[in-house]
Write a structure and sequence with these properties.
Structural class: alpha+beta
Mean pLDDT: 93
Number of helices: 7
Radius of gyration: 20 Å
Order of helices and strands: HEHEEEHEEEHEEEEEEHHHE
Helix content: 25-40%
Strand order of the largest sheet: 1-5-2
Organism: Paraglomus occultum
Protein name: 2032_t:CDS:1
Oligomer: single chain
Distance between the termini: 43 Å
Largest sheet: 3 strands, mixed
Low-confidence stretches: none
């Protein structure tokens, strides 16, 4: 990769950070480790129809109680902002990010002339991915059971299963009826939290039954536009989602 492209990429990271600093009030410095490399070569999976542009996320998550008493996953950035007492095993960096230099010819960089219709705004891509690293990130994912999604199911230090949504998930609702996804999380927690399962089939059976009993949001809902919305704190009207 030539020096000019590297310098343009570097300036893009600086501009993206400056942009987010104008939008959010950060009480502490945030550190990011980022790479601009050929992700098609290092990660694979690139095809003529699909190519990874970039990705970013929190370096670590920590389980913390929220204002409502529920335990959720907080990204390292927000955990630091909460000023927790006692030693906390923070990672050296708050956000880890990677961007695909293979797409450099398609990126629109700061200083370039008018953006073309087939170009990608690199600063916009970086800012978007950095937001994931800041905590705009859901733990809901396919469960392995047909058309059923769940929050993250993790194993804690005592080898027990725990159901954990992220702090972002606290504000997600099913727009059709205003039902909070946190209510669905609570149902899964009641059925799974603190349990041990000898087989994957046993866990899958509990997941399927819990989803059915509580009419929990499906995979189809998650891939349907506007079926799930973000309802800001203090708002109750689904129209605000």
């Amino acid at each position: 990769m030539d020096a000019q492209t590297c310098n343009k990429a570097r300036q893009s990271f600086i501009d993206a950070g400056a942009l987010l600093s104008k939008i959010f009030k950060f009480p502490q410095k945030i550190t990011v480790v980022a790479e601009f490399a050929d992700l098609c070569k290092t990660l694979g999976g690139c095809t003529a129809d699909s190519t990874i542009v970039g990705a970013a996320g929190p370096s670590r998550f920590f389980s913390m109680k929220g204002e409502d008493g529920a335990v959720r996953l907080y990204p390292q950035v927000l955990t630091k902002f909460a000023n927790p007492t006692g030693p906390v095993p923070f990672d050296t960096h708050d956000i880890i990010a990677s961007f695909n230099s293979k797409l450099a010819p398609q990126f629109f960089f700061p200083g370039d002339e008018n953006i073309k219709s087939n170009q990608i705004d690199f600063v916009g891509v970086i800012a978007h991915e950095f937001c994931h690293g800041l905590g705009f990130f859901s733990s809901w994912e396919p469960s392995g059971v047909d058309n059923v999604v769940t929050p993250a199911i993790i194993i804690d230090s005592t080898n027990k299963l725990r159901v954990r949504e992220t702090i972002f998930d606290q504000f997600l609702i099913r727009t059709a009826d205003g039902k909070k996804l946190s209510d669905f999380t609570a149902a899964f927690e009641k059925a799974i939290d603190g349990q041990t399962f000898t087989t994957n089939a046993a866990l899958a059976s509990i997941i399927e039954q819990t989803a059915s009993d509580n009419q929990i949001t499906t995979t189809t809902d998650f891939i349907t536009a506007n079926a799930v919305g973000f309802l800001p704190k203090g708002k109750t009207d689904t129209e605000d989602a």
